Amino acid sequence: MTYKKANHVASFRFELQHTDPNTGARAGQWHTPHGIVDTPAFMPVGTLGTVKGLLPEQLKAAGAQMVLSNTYHLALRPGADVVEELGGLHQFMNWSGPILTDSGGFQVFSLAKLSKLTDDQVVFRSHIDGSLLELSPEKAIRIQEQLGADCIMCLDECPPHDVGQDRLRAAVQRTTAWAARCRDAQKRDDQALFGIVQGGIDPHLREESAEGLLPLDFPGYAIGGLSVGEDPNDMYKTLDFTTPFLPVEKPRYLMGVGKPVDLLESIIRGVDLFDCVMPTRNGRNAMAFTSNGPVKIRNAKYQRDVTPLDPDGPSEVGRIYSRGYLRHLFVAKEMLGAILLSWHNIAFYENLVREMRQAIFENRSAEFRADQLARWGSDP
């Protein structure tokens, strides 16, 4: 298959609609080939081409606008060639909205024991069958072009948070060099390629990383290397000095974040896009996010509780199903429990960013954050 060389002029446009002058929180619209994304926006994670346990119709009902899938995992199974032959990710997973694919860079961190990293590429030993997957910047772009997502990511190195300064600097330099190779390798003009800013929690390295990427003029920029074990306050401080390095007129994506409080704190600092497995992973493990804080539904005190899970919340699940019934589903190991809480949690996240967006337009994003934190209590 041949593609027109990337220029992105017609396919993508980011419109910054309003910035709260009291905080710097932004509301915008990102125009993509598969629809408009109102920002700030949260993307449910569908690593293998599915958000675990949920139909596309349920995701849309929960308010999801855009979903994320993963290059490394789909390259291993079923293979990028298979996805391409079956019509690309949108047709493959029956999702008509925008899709983002991670490049596999996070797996350099999460699967470090199964990979060998050089300046040229990273070689993974498959966690499925032990076979080798060579992932260079050029290969990462080729796979993502076969998958056909709207937004694709440069291959980067995501180091652990506690490595030394030399290792952090080397990761920044490698990420910058790989970004240039990704830009040169891209052929499709209907995919937005994002550069990824690395640098740990060091302000000078974050600035160095951004300065290396800005001349490449990506249509959007991601902030990587956070939520990998550092203290949340260090993450917030890092965002304080990183987002000012990024272009105002382009979308900003914080990768792999996070808890509801993390979303609010990051939006306040000028971030537009988020993804995280937390809503569905916690849902599968019997933890629900609610208007008044987390609920661990397996707790024995809910056995005879007829109260709806979250009667004042945004999800139909929360308003209809009792805590006693939901607890029963998990105790009985019925799959419906994981489905319902995953659905509910995604609706909670989507409603949170939607309400924050409205608060931004009304210049009350700080008040909205404070009100939510007060309602959630000590464990948001």
Automatic annotation (TrEMBL):
Pfam family, one: TGT
Pathway: tRNA modification; tRNA-queuosine biosynthesis
Binding site for substrate: 102-106, 156, 198, 225
Keyword Cytoplasm recorded: no
Keyword Transferase among record annotations: yes
Record-linked InterPro entries: ArchSynthase1/Queuine_TRR, TGT, TGT-like_sf, tRNA_ribo_trans-like
UniProt-annotated catalytic positions: 102, 275
GO cellular component, one term: cytosol
Oligomer status and interactors: Homodimer. Within each dimer, one monomer is responsible for RNA recognition and catalysis, while the other monomer binds to the replacement base PreQ1.
HAMAP family hit by this protein: Q_tRNA_Tgt
Annotated protein name in UniProt: Queuine tRNA-ribosyltransferase
Species this chain originates from: Rubinisphaera italica
